[in-house]
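User: Hey, my collaborator sent me this sequence without any context and asked if I could get a structure. I don't really work with proteins. Can you help?
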Amino acid sequence: MTRLDILRKANATVRNLSYFTGNLLCPVLLLVALFSGIYPAVSQKTAISVDTTSILLGDQVKLKISIEVPEKAHVVFPVFNDTLTKDIEIIGREKIDTQPDLNTKNLIYSQKLIITAFDSGYFVVPPITFTYTLPGDTTVYTAQTEAMLLESKKVAVNEQEDIKDLKDIFDVPLTFGEVLPYILAALLAGVLIFLGIKYGRKLRKNEPILGIKKPELPPHIVALKALEELKMKKLWENNQIKEYYSELTDIIRLYIEKAMNVYAMEMTTEEIRNELIRINLNEELRKKLLSVLILADLVKFAKHQPIAFDHESCYNKCLEFVKETAPMIQTPAVTTTADEPSAPKEINNLNTDINNKTE
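Assistant: No problem. I've predicted the 3D structure and written it out in structure-token form, which is a compact way to encode the shape of the chain:
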């Protein structure tokens, strides 16, 4: 047998073996592929896009990646660090967005990355891998986007021109929208200051901030009620002498200030004497009141200890002073409307009592 015959026989054997393996193994390999998940019967689609594939050095561009999967699939997005590759950096990222596909009833998951490059050249955006699972299936499927090319160009510079100096600073005119917040803030501050001053005065005067202002009691009524309350405290009976004379003189000083327009609360005894002379107050009443004020000064500042008779005498002199001077005070009548409260009955009763005792 020649060498040519041996080669022909060998070729025939190889053809027969190829035919046998091709017809027998192909169906077997196909079945294995279907059951092993190499070619899963799952509808999925990936996409990658960018605003522009050519940027200037350092410019930012949005890179959008997306995957379309069946409605109930669970998709795991890739986790990115600060860089996509060594040449492409990630500046920021937006939230993952989900939209339905009305034609296929699938869901499209997408995310936008803000990328940039600080070197010039052509850089490859590598394929980005997604993973997902299907309900009732423990298989973890993967899907990849296609790779793409990003060009980063230098800024064109004419090296033949001279270096130019910095431009001068120029003013930009203000717009109404820029000034409006400051105008509103100034108006608001003005309103707050006005309200603070207005209602602050009312608080200092113990006036109601809202509602109808109650009519003030006449000064002599206030003084008589204060004297009655002082008597009920029994201060001097409990050896509180200094406190007794302090409250007693404060009641009289406040009465003089309100009724006679004399700032007695801030005056000395001598100054009060001069003011009472100036307003032509009855001399007998003036002397009785001054005796009370002088004794009170001795108690408060010289630690003088009056006897019980002095306590009662000073109280009676102050009470007499208020009752005797009350008819001399021109108290304006309090007018009321249907919505305002009328003057308390106790004022009228006290006025009647004073008039009866002074007649």
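In plain terms: The first helix runs from residue 3 to 36. You can pass these tokens on to your collaborator as they are.
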